[in-house]
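Slide 14.
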Amino acid sequence: MKKSVALLLALMMLLACMPAVLAEEAPTVIRMGTHWVNELDPHMIDETTGNYTIGDEEDRLIRLAAEDAVREAYNVEIQYVQYAQDTRSELVLSVLAGNPVCDLALMWNGSENTVLAQNILQPLDDYVGLYEGASWMLPDKVYGHNYFLNANQSFTQYFSLLVNLTMLEKVDALKDADGNIVYPTDLLEKDQWTWSTFKDYLTKIEAYYANTPAPEGAKVSTVQAYETDHRYATLAAMYSNGGAIYGAKGLQVNSKESIEAVQYIQSLRDAGVMVDCGTYDDGYTPQWCESGYDFGRGATVFAECPIWHIKGQVDNCTARGESVALMPWPRPDNLAKDSEDYRQVISVGDVWGVLKGIDPEKTELALKVFRTYWETYYELKAGVADMSEYKTAMAETEAMKYGLDIFNEKLGDGILNAFIFNSEKCVPNDFANLLGMRDPWDRIVGKGFYGVEGMPAYEVAIEANMNKFTDTMAQMEAILGSNEINDNQAPSVKAEGYLTVALGTDLSDYDWSVHFTAEDGFDGVLDPASGTFDASGVDVNTIGVYTVKGIYADKAGNEGSAKFGVRVFNPDNTTPPTLTVKEELPPVALDADAVLIDWAGQYVDTAVDADGLDLKDLVLADLTQLDTTTPGEYPVVLTVEDYAGNKASVEITVNVVAE
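Slide 15: predicted structure.
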């Protein structure tokens, strides 16, 4: 493991030894744009705390050193740009205005397809040579072109395959001739971690645990060999077989490799050695985190677990004295361990691009800066001289983040080696979410697995539904093949407040537009009267709270909407409202501005009229006796008046305290 102190000293020496750029050579500015500059800019200081927003000082120093490497190599100063609005709007509007907001644009995971469909990203095909020897930075082509840059070093999948090694030790059928358990880590080491071996392995586990009750709170009733979300298991199998939904070879959703993978997962399910983690009400969408929870409970030996969930569930196992390994998904028997087609599925997300409107010279410089910055960052982070050594050097650190038992005297080496092998196979390759192809694939796979709505087996269903993918591709290719910027952003629609009316009020001619505002990134402020309003759910003859939906369309046909509330009350009510306060009243800080305190939210439990209509937003506080400049106890009177004019009050005692 790298030593933090040694690394910091090395960084300080590096910073000290960097030659100064000649004063007469004004540096070129390259702007890195982001939706959250606080986690990117090592110079940013929190105005409230006075601390750097990057809290990890070692990481901050590494970023400063990466800036210095860029300055030394290209005489470039990096400027960090915070998007002023949603990424999807900010980027396209800046290009439309002829003034791109940045030279290198970060797109958060989920925004990329929208941005790509706006046709505002430059194809980077002419600059591919700049990334020779750094292919991890340049994801595969989409729609025939390189549009994206990657700065992430993935060590594991979005949903990772975990195995409880300790639970395996009870299964005698997994022992070799000498009576030793053959662990999955051993199979990987011996190059035997294959589909057929995995299925046989699961069969033996299932036979042993078949009648063992699951721990309390588990989703399953008996301990399972393998509980999962079938979508992520199927994706993992597809990529391990060289298949994909959409990948390096284009659309592969109906390829031989993808179909074989789905059939393999179906065979595990049919054999009873793989179960889903339960489904939602639609009958085919898995309750996607449940298998991870069950793994942590000890209710399943193998499970796919979301990446952000791994540490907590592994810790649960560790607390019981159990060891966990994170395994690469096994390969099909016909592929070699080192085959380029044997991959782990890694979603492409949080990627970078270069906006149209940046001239070729600046584009080339920005791309060089991108490579130098991130290579320097990772090499310093790991204390290595070359990126080829990065994952091996960081494996221990990353494995410990997930709580893996890599220092176990018996199992630790195997756990670490499996983690390293998995990480080496983790190169961004899955474009399905990014290109809007994941949802239709999910439905086809899920409905086929469960026989919902007569969906046939995958190999039949995928051919019958290929238009869902080819139409998406055709539309996108048409957009990207044009010179026009595409408006795919819905207007932003807002509705504020409530309309309060008495029983029987005639709203048939009411002008709902006065409560709505709509603004579009392309078309500007929309006429409030241009909206359409659905008030069909409002019953003016029944006391209650209802909503009116306002829908606005821009010139391109994109629709945005918002909901406005309508309260119908009884004007003849003479019963005072009910006003109760919370059992525990929070203190008020010394010198606090009492007017800014949310008295209803922090101190009121209920405020309702005789018919149950919520009145919390009508609660007023009498602060005439409250002195927040002096510690002590003070009376505050809270009052609420309902819509018929009835009032209720309660006096509370507020404690002003010095923090």
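Speaker note: The mean pLDDT is 93.
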